[in-house]
């Protein structure tokens, strides 16, 4: 008879649209195994299931009934899920967006590991760059999380730029309500904002496979500017590549992806994930050559 203890079973899922290529199941399941868990992570693709935001209460109900320990939530459900939860962490409430729902003891508690994941990635990749003026291009869900992380980490000022002025203003207002109106502003003048900045983040889809281009023209990059991208399909976006060529420090989008998963794993399981191990696995999955969180200069490429 085997003396091996059965591994605790943990069932998790991701609710979102167009999530077929997500690396999250592989990352979570591998880290679960390392931690002695029989962890199963399922994609609950809204398109395949034929569900929309109005079906979220049913999805949550069934996740509870089926014994799920938690759900990650992505586009277009991050805002819609908030009012359905028993409790929401203060930071997720500030952002009005939840990407991690922990189902425990009959309660559904929402968290946002997008911002904390970006903050962790930033600390790992650009540890000396936080107390500066930053420009945030793209004021959607990812951009709001990045702005929150930068201000939380001590950036003196964040200028928010978006092709849609209303979205830039709404994002700036939300961040100002939490961090103070003197520390964040919306602007349409990207060149002027960049001229006085020490760093810029792309939080638009530009640079993704199927979305060629860069939200920041290469000629606006200047000495001393750090460049960060949230796009990670591919890791080497046009912007990251132009920044390396210019000799700027870079933080590619893989770091945020890795650390938001690490944060979610810890909330779901109560166990500490090994961020370095998850990053190595992420790089294996993406086939990338550069570290996801490091910021090598042009000479390293
Ligand atoms: P979103 O659609 O909510 O927001 C994108 C914003 O960019 C919109 O407000 C849009 O108006 C703006 N925009 C588009 N083109 C622009 C341009 N040229 N100049 C200025 N603004 C422009 O999308 P989102 O959910 O915030 O995601 C944005 C990107 O971030 C996606 O590529 C997504 O895959 C990526 N993402 C990465 C991570 C990660 O872990 N690395 C996490 C979340 C999202």
Automatic annotation (TrEMBL):
Q: Which InterPro entries match?
A: Aminoacid_DH-like_N_sf, NAD(P)-bd_dom_sf, SDH_C, Shikimate_DH-bd_N, Shikimate_DH_fam
Q: Which residues form the SDH C-terminal domain?
A: 255-280
Q: Which UniProt keywords apply?
A: Amino-acid biosynthesis, Aromatic amino acid biosynthesis, Oxidoreductase
Q: In which pathway does it act?
A: Metabolic intermediate biosynthesis; chorismate biosynthesis; chorismate from D-erythrose 4-phosphate and phosphoenolpyruvate: step 4/7
Could you give a GO molecular-function term held by this entry? shikimate 3-dehydrogenase (NADP+) activity
- Gene Ontology biological process: aromatic amino acid family biosynthetic process; chorismate biosynthetic process; shikimate metabolic process
Shikimate dehydrogenase substrate binding N-terminal domain sequence ranges: 14-101
Pfam families xrefs: SDH_C, Shikimate_dh_N
What EC designation does it have? 1.1.1.25
The name of this protein is Shikimate dehydrogenase
Organism encoding this protein: Quadrisphaera setariae
Give the taxonomic lineage as stored in the record: Bacteria, Bacillati, Actinomycetota, Actinomycetes, Kineosporiales
């Amino acid at each position: 008879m085997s003396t091996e203890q059965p591994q605790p079973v943990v069932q998790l899922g991701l609710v979102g649209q167009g999530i077929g290529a997500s690396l999250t199941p592989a990352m979570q399941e591998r880290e679960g195994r390392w931690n002695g868990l029989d962890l199963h992570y399922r994609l609950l693709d809204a398109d395949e299931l034929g569900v929309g935001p109005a079906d979220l209460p049913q999805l949550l109900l069934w996740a509870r009934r089926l014994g799920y320990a938690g759900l990650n939530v992505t586009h277009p459900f991050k805002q819609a899920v908030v009012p359905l939860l028993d409790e929401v962490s203060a930071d997720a409430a500030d952002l009005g967006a939840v990407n991690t729902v922990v189902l425990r003891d009959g309660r559904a508690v929402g968290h946002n590991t997008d911002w904390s994941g970006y903050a962790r990635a930033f600390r790992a990749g650009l540890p000396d760059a936080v107390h500066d003026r930053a420009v945030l291009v793209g004021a959607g869900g990812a951009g709001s999380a990045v702005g929150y992380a930068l201000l939380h980490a001590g950036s003196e000022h964040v200028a928010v730029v978006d092709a849609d002025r209303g979205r830039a203003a709404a994002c700036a207002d939300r961040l100002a309500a939490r961090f103070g109106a003197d520390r964040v502003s919306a602007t349409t003048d990207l060149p002027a904002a960049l001229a006085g900045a020490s760093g810029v983040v792309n939080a638009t889809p530009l640079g993704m496979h199927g979305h060629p281009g860069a939200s920041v023209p290469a000629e606006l990059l200047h000495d001393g500017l750090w460049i960060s991208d949230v796009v990670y399909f591919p890791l080497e976006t046009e912007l990251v590549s132009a920044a390396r060529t210019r000799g700027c420090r870079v933080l590619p989008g893989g770091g945020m992806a890795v650390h938001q998963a690490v944060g979610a794993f810890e909330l779901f399981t109560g166990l500490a994930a090994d961020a370095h191990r998850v990053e190595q696995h992420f790089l294996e999955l993406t086939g990338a050559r550069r570290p996801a969180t490091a910021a090598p200069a042009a000479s390293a490429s």
